[in-house]
Every structure is written in C-alpha cells, then in structure tokens.
Design a protein that fits this description.
four-stranded antiparallel sheet
Length: about 190
C-alpha cells in the first residue's frame, strides 16, 4: 500500500527534529506490533508518505490508529494545542503491479526534492532514500522483494536505486499516483 496522511488544513505535523524522530520511533514500534512491513517513507512538514505491506486486513488500520493516538497526544501536549492534527483518516492506495511499486517508492522518496526542501534526496534526513541508495541502516525498514531484485548485491541495488531516482520523472506517472492515493483506489497499470 501507498499511504498518505496530511495535517489538518495542510498545517504542520512536524515542527522540530524531535517531532520527526518521535514519529519514526512510533512507526517502528507500531509496525512491529501490528505486523506491517515498512518498505519506504518520507515525513514531510505537513504530511507523511509510507510504502507498506500489512500482514492482515486489520494490520494497517491498527498501525495507523496506534501511531495517531500517541503522536497527536504528544504533539498537542508539546505545542499546547487541542483537537485533531490530521485531515481525517489516512488514505491508502493498493499497489497491484510491480512497476507501480518501484514508481511509488521513487515518488515517496523524491517528494522532498519535488517540494524543494532539498536539492538532492540524500540531503533529506526524514526519508528512507539513504537506506535504499546508500545502504544506511534503518531498523524500521523491511526490504521488499522488488527492491532486492534490483541487484545481486547491496552495492548493485544502491547504485540501481540512485540511477532510478536520478532519471527524469514522467508527469503522467505523478498524476496517476496522485489520483490513486486521493481516490484511495488501486492502480493496476501506469500508461
């Protein structure tokens, strides 16, 4: 699944580095407890992107609920606010074909560059790009078989991922991904 959750009225979900760290800690704990494999992520200022594989139909909702309950309580207390932090329920799009899976992971990890937060994805601390492109250890991540198929060795996979993310992005692919996630519907083929 490609999962996205936005801040209410596109307001900030993260304000300081400790917010990002706390969310990532929650993501790691909740994914293990709820049996959801996390393959990729990007924590943006006002939204979160995840690439995940839940073990059961209930796993993903349970994980997102667990993260939401704890993180919102923490955020509200820390910033002396009340009420909901997120724009309703998370959105999820089922990833049904292999090409879409790699395209979606690339979309997630290149999000900070498209948003002009950084000029190159490895400069963004709050995404899984460094793990995939340079082999950084990230205990939250489970390697997906399609990522592993990019090369025989970790070095081969890292180089292949750098090349994939360095290639120009097709606007039609971006539109397809955005429509799928907004409509919470699967994408079978990207034309």
């Amino acid at each position: 699944h490609h999962v996205i959750q936005r801040g209410n009225n596109r307001s900030a979900m993260f304000q300081v580095p400790d917010d990002y760290r706390f969310y990532l800690e929650l993501l790691g704990n909740a994914s293990r407890k709820c049996q959801v494999q996390v393959h990729g992520y990007a924590l943006m200022t006002n939204h979160v992107h995840l690439s995940v594989t839940p073990s059961t139909a209930a796993s993903l909702p349970q994980m997102m609920k667990r993260i939401g309950e704890i993180y919102v309580r923490h955020f509200n207390k820390h910033y002396e606010r009340t009420g909901g932090l997120c724009e309703g329920r998370y959105r999820a799009s089922l990833i049904q074909d292999e090409r879409y899976w790699l395209t979606c992971l690339r979309y997630i990890e290149m999000n900070p560059v498209r948003a002009r937060l950084v000029t190159s994805p490895e400069l963004y601390e709050w995404s899984s790009y460094r793990a995939h492109a340079f082999g950084y250890t990230d205990p939250r991540l489970t390697a997906h078989p399609l990522f592993l198929a990019l090369g025989r060795t970790s070095t081969d996979r890292n180089c292949a991922w750098q090349a994939t993310c360095g290639a120009p992005t097709d606007d039609d692919e971006l539109t397809t991904i955005r429509r799928a996630i907004q409509g919470c519907r699967p994408v079978r083929v990207i034309s």
